[in-house]
Amino acid sequence: MLEVTANLPRGPVFLAGETLCCDVTFTNTSKENQSGYEILAWASVQIICQCTVCESRVQLPRENILSAEEASSTGCDTSFVPNKAHGKHFLKNIIEGERGLTVLCTKPTILFCDLKLAPGMSRTYQYEEVIPTDAPPSFRGQAVKYSYKVIVGTQRLEKATKMVRVPFRVLVLYGLNDISVYNETEEIAPSNPFLHNCRKETSVLDVALQVISTVTARKTPHSYNITNARGRVAKFLLFKQAYKLGEDIVGMFDFSVGTVPCVQYSVTLQSEEQISEECRRKPSQGTTVTSYVKHQEMCLHTVRSHVNIPIPLTATPGFITDIVCQRWRLHFEFVTSLTDIPGPESALSDTEERLWQGPSTLNVETMVWDLNIKVFPTNPIHASSVTLMKTSATIHLGD
Questions:
Q1: The whole model's pTM is what?
Q2: Which of 78, 106, 144, 244 is 20 to 30 A (C-alpha) from 315?
């Protein structure tokens, strides 16, 4: 009996441009007192990204169709994934009924040929592949889905090919195509005459974290006056407009400047999934909105109120591809009164008790407001700590 295990030691979340490392272990699980070798003819590894669309809402343009020659030039002719028998159709996955379009397919890497394992013996191979910086991010929307897998294929002599699949997640930060622009040259880099000048190359992850920290740093607060046809409702202060996954969106309402009484407000973190015009099944179809976190509070006779909304680490940052675009926003709803509501009378002293009874009915109206924000990726190691994806997969090859 042979056992094949694929493991991602760093975790299941990576940044586009990083090098993915996968340890592939082949073990002969037969007892040592048993005779005979187990022989594997070959083993190969590659990365694929599949795009699954809702056919009732998305139609893919003809420009995305890959011909047989184009598919062969990507190295897919020796892979497990696409079927290019029909050059006039999209590349389709034929792995045991999996459905979807293969939008990324790395060249297969041969781990070995003709491997012999004695009972109880195991061999481990390390597979490394750079995730392209122009790859789409992992995304699970209502109309479009992008999913990544590491696929290990192996075959015993005169047996069918068996495969191990390890799913993983990809985050994309645009603008990392050339990290050399972030590396300081020797002419401008600070030097110390008492230390040996050893220049260290900057990794993609280091550059990405530096860029994310810069663009999401707190700068000048943004102030917004919230008004309706009858006057001013409140003033909203947002400390910044760019965030990374896992951060808290902190804001403050100032109702003391309002002339219209606000009874209740709610703030909801939402994402908008918009299909590109050439891929829409119906020209009139709009965007799909997904809500994540909602903060709701009663605010009648309130002077100030704070909002704290966390951005889930499992969410997908804003991105755009040829098929779909995702944006982020804060959705506000304000319930305002059409009539003035007298508050409690001022007490003569601070120790005096007061009791105020609100009206039993109110004549109100609701107003909504959307504020666009930007959401960027975070450290993939932090995102790995909350994911439910498994970092390894195992199959057994019997007789």
A1: 0.82
A2: 106
